[in-house]
Amino acid sequence: MSTRIKLHRRRRTKIIATLGPASSTIEVLARLFQGGADVFRLNFSHGTHEDHAARILLIRELEDRFERPIGILADVQGPKLRVGVFSGGRVHLRNGQAFRLDLNPTPGNATRVNLPHPEIIEAASIGTTLLLDDGKLRLRVLRKRGDGLETEVVVGGPLSDRKGVNVPDVVLPIPALTPKDHADLAFALDHGVNFIGLSFVQRPEDVAEAKAIVAGRAWIMTKMEKPQALDNLDEILRLSDAVMVARGDLGVELPPEEVPLAQKRIVRAARALGKPVVVATQMLESMISAPAPTRAEASDVATAVFDGADAVMLSAETAAGQYPYEAVNIMDRIVARVEQDPGWRAMIEASRAEPERATADAIAAAARQVCHTIGARTIVAFTASGSTALRVARERPEAPVIGLTPSLDTARRLAVVWGVHAVVAAEAHSMSEAVVKATRAAQTEGFASQGDEIVVAAGVPFGQSGSTNALRVATIK
Asked: Which of 30, 183, 287, 448 would disulfide-bridge 442, Cβ 3.0–4.6 Å?
């Protein structure tokens, strides 16, 4: 008899924790995992390949220790647009003054600075808005020259070397993957990561390009952080394997009052398609330096849970903050408490999308209904690629879902999916064998006991991806 700890969460919504200087030892990682982290994020905007390789090694060591699949998200930087440098390192722009952005690499001053991105100059037009330093400064284009833009400072303030530039009004003719991203992508895939976070997507073609490179070796998690992506939301979602509401950059380019509505729209659309959706950025921001969150932050996490997001994410809170474990622990507690509330279940039921006209979706919807009617303890979904587990999770059943898969890669990917407890097991070859394996897993993992009923969803013939067509009720003997 196995003596390993039956580690499963008391909640359906998953937690992603970003790793960094504050969380780079096996001791801290173990605490974060036990505290509630289901997926670990590596931010390729920071750190070297050696740093990330060391963290991946620690995560896999942790996985072996707890005998539980752990997902790894490699978040690539994407095209970062920045101004050049100033002769004094810093200037102060006044409201109403003229300011030039040009291709001249000479250090700037209070009247001009280098903008080493000819594509911005080419795409801009009179009236285009430019946002600098995460939106703190706002410029409006008055005239366009071949080598620069003459602008008026609408909102001024201090501006220093290499601050970021955002152009919310324009689709820029730049790829979502830079040469650095291609190198990071190759490294991440060689090291077996499970998700690729695709930054600054503007068009469906950006996702298609990344998918062609990844070639099924990981799930593409598209980050929604550009207003232009919202214009192509449905097509981008259909091409993506998962999606992240990246509210930091989205909040720079969208007015603040639009961000909550965009979040709800993205979550709703992703849920309708059965694509895992993550809500991220500034969820418990104050915990970077404080041991407890604000009440507003707790409410923010709760809102994402009420909306039915698959996962919520911590960024600097666990990467560089003073209280990484406390941040994961309180997020776990908030999520678990919300999911115990009758109002949460009522909202999840009310927001469930109709199943698509397909056998697999009909079986998944029936699994949820049968489970509810008979009070089954769990739904066991046999899933080679993850498709069956995703379809069952889309129904947001009351009982937990065991995703039984012969693939460790699939099990790791399911770590981000709502309500799914992934288990690696040898493939079944018949429905009767599947029932035996399902009842054994339900008992071994601590989800059911003798006399309990479970629901089994599978595809016949076994081993054929995307063939969910069979449903069985079984009793634990």
From this structure: 448
Burial 223-253 (b: 16+ CB within 10 A, else e): bbbbbbbbebbeebbebbbbbbbbbebbbbb
- The CATH number that applies at residue 406 is 3.40.1380.20
The answer to whether the beta carbons of residues 105 and 114 sit under 8 Å apart is: yes
Q: Would residue 85 count as lying in a domain?
A: no
**Whether residue 318 sits in one domain with residue 249:** yes
DSSP state of 43: E
Token pair 């995992």 is at which residue? 33
Q: How many domains does the chain have?
A: 3
Q: Which sequence positions are flagged as catalytic?
A: 41, 82, 223, 281
The tokens for 100 are 């030039």
**Do residue 221 and residue 323 come from a single domain?**
yes
pLDDT given at position 2: 43
Strands 14-19 and 311-314: parallel
E runs forming strands in 94-209: 98-102, 112-114, 129-132, 137-145, 148-155, 157-160, 165-166, 195-198
Tokens read off for 185: 């992508």
Hey, is 360 helix, strand or coil?
helix
* 270 HSE (CA, 13 A, CB side): 32
Our measurement of the distance from residue 57's CA atom to the centroid of its chain's CA atoms, rounded to an integer in Å, reads: 22
Judge whether 400 and 376 are in contact, CB under 8 Å: no
Give the angle subtended at the CA of 124 by the CAs of 123 and 125, to the nearest 5°.
Answer: 125
Which helix (H) or strand (E) segment is 222 a member of?
strand 219-224
Q: Which pLDDT does position 399 carry in this prediction?
A: 96
- At 215-245, the pLDDT tens digits run 999 999 999 999 999 999 999 999 999 999 9
Calpha distance 440→148 (Å, rounded): 68
Here the CATH number for the domain that contains residue 303 is 3.20.20.60
Residues of the chain whose pLDDT is less than 50?
A: 1-4
pLDDT at 25: 96
Helix (H) or strand (E) holding 452: none
User: Tokens 């879902």 identify what position?
Assistant: 401
User: Using the 8-state DSSP alphabet, how is residue 281 labeled?
Assistant: S
Domain that holds residue 162: 90-166
Give the whole-angstrom CA distance, residue 139 versus residue 160.
15
Task: Tell me the β-bridge partners of 160.
Answer: 90
